[in-house]
Design goal:
Length: 221
């Protein structure tokens, strides 16, 4: 019978240990052994209650995971604790809710960050597209302006040539063979000038003038 009491204590079945201990006393268990086993049962029940109180304090602080650990220690010592099942269920539910809220906050932060990054990316793409479109429009406008001015400039040039035929003759003369000969002669003159040595500048040395001394006369008598 004593062995059965010890086995129930190890399993945390304190109610069963109490009942077995009472039957063992009627079956011839000595009072000393009874008191020793009874003390062990009550001490284990007290330690289980201490873990339950610690779990309650952690639960009230919002530390649901830690409170579950304390309730687990209490259940290992006293599976028959009257409020332990309800407290464990409440802590598990609160822990799941808190974990879900944390996950949602994390996802919200990630979504916000990703949304901000994507917004900046698409805004930069729109700005680049707008800039490219403006550059293309400027180029097209410049080209259109050149196309509009070209016929006018051509007509102006032709009108000037018609009004001043000598200018056309001068253009032909400038582009004729004589102009080419003049260019060749100019090139030859430039090469000759390069080959000629530079004139040496004379160096003038100024000698200071000296006064002539008068000749000495005969000595006086």
């Amino acid at each position: 019978m004593r062995a059965n009491v010890v086995r129930f204590l190890s399993a945390g079945k304190l109610s069963a240990a109490d009942q077995t201990l009472n039957r063992a006393l009627l079956s011839g268990l000595t009072p000393a052994e009874y008191e020793s086993l009874k003390y062990r049962i009550e001490d284990q029940r007290a330690r289980a209650a201490s873990f339950v109180r610690a779990g309650d304090a952690l639960y009230n602080d919002g530390k649901y995971k830690e409170s579950l650990q304390r309730y687990g220690e209490a259940a290992r010592l006293d599976v028959n604790h009257p409020a332990l099942t309800a407290k464990t269920a409440m802590a598990e539910s609160a822990h799941r809710s808190a974990r879900s809220a944390t996950t949602l906050r994390t996802l919200g932060i990630i979504s916000s960050t990703v949304g901000h990054v994507l917004s900046e990316y698409f805004e930069s793409k729109r700005e680049q597209s707008r800039s490219d479109r403006e550059d293309q429009e400027d180029k097209e406008e410049e080209q259109a302006e050149q196309d509009r001015d070209e016929p006018r400039l051509r007509r102006k040039h032709e009108s000037r040539r018609e009004n001043d035929p000598e200018e056309e003759d001068e253009d032909k003369e400038q582009t004729g063979p004589d102009a080419e000969d003049d260019e060749e002669e100019n090139e030859d003159d430039e090469e000759e000038d390069k080959e000629k040595p530079e004139p040496v500048q004379p160096i003038l040395i100024r000698i200071p003038a000296t006064k002539a001394k008068p000749p000495r006369g005969p000595p006086a008598p």
